[in-house]
Description:
Blueprint lengths: L3 E9 L3 E6 L2 E6 L2 H4 L2 H4 L5 E12 L4 E8 L2 H10 L7 H7 L4 H9 L3 H4 L7 H11 L23 H12 L4 H14 L6 H13 L1
Antiparallel strand pairs: 1-2, 1-4, 2-3, 4-5
Amino acid sequence: MIARLRGKVVEHKDLAVTLDVGGIFYEVFVPVSVARRIPEVCDAQGSVTLITHHYLQIGPSAGTPILVGFLSDVEKDFFLQFISVSGIGPKAAVKALDRSIAEIASAIDRGDVAFLKGLPGIGQQKAKDIVAKLQGKVGRFGLIQDKGTTQDVRPVSPLQEEAVAVLMQLQYRKVEAEDMVRKVFERSPGLSSVEQVLNEIYKQRVA
């Protein structure tokens, strides 16, 4: 069992890196949330240490050993929790984890199906399955500090807060209201009143 590897990064793809470990070249699959930070942690020689999950992918006629790499034991622990959800295998999880683990863990903890179904390969039903299986179990991973997070760190404006409050008065759940307001401002950042925000949301829902 390969628990960790240290080697020089000789190739960097979207979802995998190739490490030269003493002349032996290992392909290691890595989630986007990990891959984007690898250049930051490589030493002067371009080497990095990856903590690995080593498993056998069973095919029709043979098994293929697969390595998935992480930069910390905590990231690996979250990955193992994630693949405990029925229907999510290691390769699907590597593809799905394209946002920071802290963001994903926080979304699971608050039951944010809208956020989770936006992850690659995760539809509505799988998002619900993830929440059903992991809600209340992964909150600690939301504390991970990730310099490479893709989370929008701009403060929520008073206008956005007011729009969310109005939508909640209209019987929308807070998660749904926040998601609708966020998407409207991504499309139309120049909105200047709650009325404009609500009109844009309405137009999108009836389009």
